[in-house]
Amino acid sequence: MFTSAHALTADWKTGVDSCLAQLGQEPSSAGANFGFLYVTEALSSSLDFILHDLRTRSGISHWVGSTGLGVCILNQSHCGEFFDDPTMVIMAANVPPGSFTLFPASDSSGDSGVDSGRQEIASETSKKDWPAGLPFVVAHVDTSNPNALPLIEDLAESTGGFVVGGLTSSETQNHQVAGTVTGGGVSGVVFSPDVPVVTSLSQGCQPMGPLHTVSRSTNNLIFELDNQPALDVLLGACEVDSVLALRDLAGDVHAALPVAGSDTADYVVRNLIGVDEDHGVVAIGAPVQDGDTIMFVRRDSQAARNDLRQSFQKLKSRAGDHIKGGLYISCIARGSHMFGRQNAELELIRDIFGGIPLVGLYANGEISNNRLYSYTGVLTLFV
């Protein structure tokens, strides 16, 4: 049994009252033993109180979640995205006892942050005596932690699992939930293979032209592509003849790094940081090495809509007819910014999967298959 609920109110106590009323009888009495909790920034400072009240009154001790730049809800009665308004969304779930392990946020302070975080993750999430199969991990990553990405890699290694999740941020220092209110690093839950899931990722950017080979670079600075000045290649891909014209495309054009070994032509998008017109240099939001391949992509609402529908339809064929619930992590730059109106993504999920219980958040970056993406939507279905 999975059930979802939401409340739009600045009064956290009223919000918890409303969510629990929507769930009906005490969730634990109905078998629920785990919950997801997401709130918008307006309720972040009340997260401690919200969690304590939910634990006490729902009978569910184990909650995972975060403050989100936006949150979303789907069920038979509601379908919506919420950003600036004070909103909480929750989903109560019944999963096999002993089939999940929570892990609190790792320490991120100082040079020892990586090592101490690795030790914490290893102790909390090292491979359990679970049935054969691939564990599934939901991770929330604090953007203030400079060691977050190495910790994601360690999380995947220590659990042997498939990791999904998102980068979270808040004006409140502790804005994540993993059994308790925490923050500063990577937190979340590891599900055993006893909790079957299927996932899909949908891109929000369309490739512009062919792949290029990095001929000369230093860290994130690309001097040459295909033995030509990198800026000239970028201008050609954008079909413009000047940096001035390129500025008109700012925010729409990005770099993309193909995923090695992908059989779906997958790629991760990274922002263009800047260009040096005098030296023909392009700076991107990720380090590269000579010999790497790269391409340029452009945000495209119609292509994103088509890719979203296709990915959902493929996911439906894998999920079958017995979907228990869902989790959706989308980029804050999607939503109405990409699709022209609010709720477009949630309405498409509803059109294809029906009013399944689902919650989620809009993040600064999305995690799928242990990689960090941008401008994507990651849908997970519990089956």
Description of the structure:
This protein is of the alpha+beta class. Helix content is 25%, strand content 37%. It is built from nine helices and 26 strands. The longest helix has 19 residues. It starts with a strand and ends with a strand. About 2% of the residues have low confidence.
Give the structure's gist in a few sentences.
This protein is of the alpha+beta class and 383 residues long. 25% of the residues lie in helices and 37% in strands.
Features of this protein?
383 residues; alpha+beta; Elongation Factor Tu (Ef-tu), domain 3; 8-stranded antiparallel sheet; 26 strands; 37% strand; elongated
- Tell me what portion of residues adopts beta-strand conformation: 35-45%
**Structural class based on helices, strands and sheet pairing:** alpha+beta
Q: Looking at the structure, what is the overall shape? A: elongated
Q: What's the mean pLDDT score?
A: 91
Q: How far is the first residue's CA from the last residue's CA? A: 11 Å
Number of helical regions: 9
When the domains are counted, the total is: 2
* Cα Rg: 21 Å
The strand count comes to 26
- The helix content, as a percent range, equals 25-40%
Question: Regions with pLDDT < 50 over 5+ consecutive residues?
Answer: 108-114
Summarize the biggest pleated sheet: 8 strands, antiparallel
What is the topological layout?
Blueprint: E1 2-8, H1 12-23, E2 34-40, H2 47-58, E3 63-68, E4 70-74, E5 79-82, E6 87-93, E7 100-103, H3 113-125, E8 136-142, H4 148-159, E9 162-168, E10 176-178, E11 181-182, E12 186-191, E13 197-202, E14 205-218, E15 221-225, E16 228-229, H5 230-238, H6 243-247, E17 253-258, E18 267-270, E19 272-276, E20 281-284, E21 293-299, H7 301-319, E22 325-331, H8 335-339, H9 344-353, E23 358-363, E24 366-368, E25 371-373, E26 377-382
Helix pairs in contact: 1-2, 3-4, 7-9
